[in-house]
Design a protein that fits this description.
single chain; 233 residues; three-stranded antiparallel β-sheet; 9 strands
Length: 233
Amino acid sequence: MNLSKKQIAPIFAGLFALSATANAEPTGYNQISFTSEVKTEVDNDEVQATMSKKAQAKDAKRLATTLNSAMNNAMKVAKRYPTVTVTTGQNSTYPSYDKNGKINGWTGQASINIKSTDLEATSELIANLQENLVLGNLSFGVSETRKDEVKKQMLVKASKAFQQQAKTLTSAWGASSYNVVNVQLNTGSSYYQPMRESGMYAMKASADVPAQEFESGNSTITVTANGTIELVK
């Protein structure tokens, strides 16, 4: 994770201030390596989905017309939801053959990608689009904006946890203080995305599409501080 100098300075200031001889060159002796880890659960605030249209036709032109019309109509519907981002997805077309190896038709598929932090509006949009499109994928996660906010807080907590563990080890080994040899901060995430029959956000369907309900779940963001200290006797 890339951080600016202004962000890095307060995180590492405490690590070096605790050692009276932090500027001393490490001797290579009395060194201990360890890892400190902090975790926090964050509500998933972003939904991503893929919807597609599959069709068959005798000729490629008619197939393209069907798929393009479906995608254009979907985009028109999506414009009614300004808080939802909809982009063109993957498109594919391939021929089918008769027993003599001659082309007797075409099959194609076109898709759109949906992404938003407005879960309620997204659920309504998906339900409306399901009149003509098929929902192929639905997933939840933490938005980049929220993730960056949480990670900044967790970096500070991980640094303090490393300092506290360093103090504990220094005392346990009967040393008077310690020098920090090196520290690395790493972040990671794991996601819990349940799909249930009932949940927090219900898809508001049209008269032709039954409602689908889902909940966004949560994610666990982890920050670890891996480092080595040198004990000063």
